[in-house]
Amino acid sequence: MRPGPARNAHNAKGPGEPGGAMALGIDHRHCKVCGKTCAPGSETCSAACQEKRDATIRTRRFYTNVMYIVIAFLVIVLAINFIR
Hints:
The chain is mainly alpha-helical. The protein has helices spanning 21-24, 47-83; strands at 29-30, 37-38.
């Protein structure tokens, strides 16, 4: 047995070993929502995952904007109290 890193399910065969993923030349990506493999040019595997991703992005953008509004409100209130 040759010395080297421990093998597990993720690295059962290394890039240089016969039968490894890099040896096969398979170019793929993983879906950002569910983790399934998808085409190299896309970020999601299906329309349903794309809708979930879009909804998540909209929700994050909404809460980020709410946070900015609250911070601006607090700065204005503190400025008014400081002026008095």
